[in-house]
Specification:
The chain is built from three helices and no strands. The chain has one domain: 3 Solenoid (Pectate Lyase C-like). By secondary structure, it is largely without helices or strands. About 7% of the residues have low confidence.
Length: 169
């Protein structure tokens, strides 16, 4: 298979636009990425932020679909209206995070810590939440159709039986 010069330029542009931050201390490598960062409305599609510390970051309206955020720290972060569709959030710490009206459809949230998180109106369709901690999470009006909740801790969570009936338990 041959790649034309214009196809190659397009691939290079797309790869150059990706945000790549790995490791426990991403703030050292990038002044924009770190605890309390202001990333409102930013396009971080496909960003690699494995293990990044974005605690208390402002990610309202951010586009993080297909992002790789495994084991990242987003404790207390504001992700209101953020698009996290198909993102890999395995083992992420989202305790007390605000995810109102966020799109988490098809996301991998396996073993994620979502204790006391506000997921009001979030779209969690077809997401994998196996072994996730949703203790005292607010799931009012959240869409759980097809979400996998096997082994998830829902103790003291604000969720209805109707919502749970649409999920896979």
């Amino acid at each position: 298979m041959r790649i034309t010069e214009s196809q190659l330029r397009k691939i290079i542009r797309e790869e150059a636009a990706r945000v790549i931050v790995e490791g426990p201390a991403p703030a050292a490598g990038s002044p924009e990425i770190g605890p309390g960062a202001d990333l409102r409305g930013r396009n971080l599609r496909g960003a690699i932020l494995k293990g990044a510390d974005l605690s208390f970051a402002d990610l309202r309206g951010a586009r993080l679909y297909f992002a790789k955020l495994e084991y990242a720290k987003l404790t207390g972060a504001d992700l209101t209206g953020a698009d996290l569709g198909s993102a890999n959030l395995r083992g992420v710490k989202l305790g007390a995070a605000i995810l109102k009206d966020a799109d988490l459809g098809d996301a991998n949230l396996e073993r994620a810590a979502l204790d006391a998180a506000d997921l009001t109106g979030a779209d969690i369709r077809d997401a994998d939440l196996r072994g996730a901690n949703l203790y005292a999470a607010n799931l009012e009006r959240a869409i759980l159709r097809g979400a996998i909740l096997r082994g998830a801790n829902l103790a003291n969570a604000q969720v209805t039986e109707e919502q749970l009936a649409m999920a896979i338990r």
